[in-house]
Design a protein that fits this description.
The chain is α/β, with parallel strands linked by helices and 280 residues long. The protein has two domains: 62 residues, no CATH class; 194 residues. It contains 13 helices and five strands. Strands 3-2-1-4-5 form a five-stranded mixed β-sheet, sandwiched between helices. A hairpin with a 5-residue loop joins strand 2 and strand 3. Helix 5 runs parallel beside helix 13 and helix 10 packs across helix 11. The longest helix is centred in the last third of the chain and has 25 residues. It is elongated, with a radius of gyration of 21 Å.
Amino acid sequence: MIPATRNGVGRPRKEAGDVAKALLLMEYLQVSERAATDWAWIFKEKLGITAELSSRSIGRGFENEEVRFILLKVFEWTGNAFSEAEKTVAIDATGVTESIKQNYESVKHDDVGKAQSFLKLSLSVGTACHGVGAFALTRGVGDSPLFEPLLDETTSNWHSVNVACADAGYLSRHNCQVAAETGVIPYIFPKTGITLKQRGSPAWKAMLSSMVQATQAWLRAYHLRSDVETVNSCLSRRFRKLSCRKENNKHYEETARIILHNLRQLNTAIHEGKINHKTF
């Protein structure tokens, strides 16, 4: 149920459902707020939009608590739809474009300070259908601390997950143990100089021992991680730089984009027979 909010002075707010649909349409078409008002009017019957929306109503949509609630619920629904199909998740992060003048890849090795200031999108992606089960939008946070919350959110919704893959940026004894205690086998690529000493993490030693004893099989499982790279590339090519200027609004703009990605992957999975549409 949408949480109730008090109207301020002036005209009453537009229906949150209408605004949320218009925002998703705007992100899907990658158009401006002004152009989105025209497209929302054109597709109002198909989308079930009940009122005429102004560019200001759409532009301020990401600040509306009711709209935010709807977007989060829709993301939750689209993510949960992949639950029965996904058994392996891949976790990775990439820089999010906020300006056309600079990008994360151009500075991450040359200027650590500038790289820390970039917005980073961390994803937990299913390797069967390429749907996003969890994500985090952060700034100045390393990869490793995000492994546990991403895996926890994903496994709480996708109950069939039993394998998690991640690159060396997520390597730690804590992350290996967290995965094992969740019932998930970790495949996190090792770094040079590490040892088999478990130091309170039996899962750490078990993971490294399995890599040594059956290297090719271990690498085949680990390289499913490339699927999350595919999703990162898909999102960066499909969508332009984030348009929201306020830091908190960027999270909900990215939520709308991931919803659109999940809907596309869900449609593909249904037509490929990976998901039975009658189950959700």
